[in-house]
Fold this sequence. Notes:
- The chain has 348 residues and is α/β, with parallel strands linked by helices.
- Helices cover 41% and strands 16% of the residues.
- The protein has 14 helices and ten strands.
Amino acid sequence: xxxxxxxxxxxxxxxxxxxxxxxxxxxxxxxxxxxxxxxxxxxxxxxxxxxxxxxxxxxxxxxxxxxxxxxxxxxxxxxxxxxxxxxxxxxxxxxxxxxxxxxxxxxxxxxxxxxxxxxxxxxxxxxxxxxxxxxxxxxxxxxxxxxxxxxxxxxxxxxxxxxxxxxxxxxxxxxxxxxxxxxxxxxxxxxxxxxxxxxxxxxxxxxxxxxxxxxxxxxxxxxxxxxxxxxxxxxxxxxxxxxxxxxxxxxxxxxxxxxxxxxxxxxxxxxxxxxxxxxxxxxxxxxxxxxxxxxxxxxxxxxxxxxxxxxxxxxxxxxxxxxxxxxxxxxxxxxxxxxxxxxxxxxx
Length: 348
Ligand SMILES: Cc1cc2nc3c(=O)[nH]c(=O)nc-3n(C[C@H](O)[C@H](O)[C@H](O)COP(=O)(O)O)c2cc1C
């Protein structure tokens, strides 16, 4: 039948090698964002898989403590994936092995990062210019580990060089179990809408490799639309996870035909407070302050007074000021709030 796309509902399990994901909603690696506190918040809403932010192969191999810190995770947060960034096939196997030894369930290869500092040595989206190298790196990772290997790419370097389907075939041949397609080019960075046709094109050429759709999944409705448009095997939520750690729960509920209820200001406040407590438990106060200036701007975007709240939290001078703002900031028409925050019930 013309136009019919076979799909599997997003609340169903997905098999990645020997690993069974509980559902098909996956949280993207987000450099500078998907740290341990972020992932602790995410885990409460049971995504199928959560990736840590990317780490570079070289410092990982050197035993750099900062790199290992980025890979901290809680023993009860599974399934969890790590992402490697690098273009040297000789390092790929040993680096993947370190990830497996750390207890990760999945190891991914970053072929999407658009930052010049990363692409200049051919890593990140620089790899899109050298698809054969992608195959070599993946093959070495697959040979070195028993956990599933995945890869994350963009549609291509620019509009004149779209090659996601070629890379899908190469990744499949090299033994990757899944490929995430971000429907933007490197030239686009994060501008403009993602083109989901590229995800569909990769789904059409994939034989055994699973295709994860990525780009502009900001709510449950968008996830369903991406699924219908592309036939992808899973959706990868990225910026849509920032300030709404529950997006996986929403998508799974919608997939099961349940109503998705918008969160109240008080639920946002409670979640932000919880994120805050995880952050101060994770890093020294000055670092936590810097993190919270960013994180505080993700939550609570759509009430009156939110602009003022974001302005204040992004300029807070110390961590006590952040706590005070979260607990006591009065959004318009939303005064008696302090007592409703149940700080004692939160386990750190
Ligand atoms: C702040 C930020 C950090 C990111 N870090 C990574 C990363 O470490 N690895 C990666 O593969 N992609 C990274 N990305 C890309 C996202 O995972 C995702 O592909 C992109 O945001 C498109 O999805 P979206 O439109 O749903 O946000 C990052 C994106 C942002 C905005």
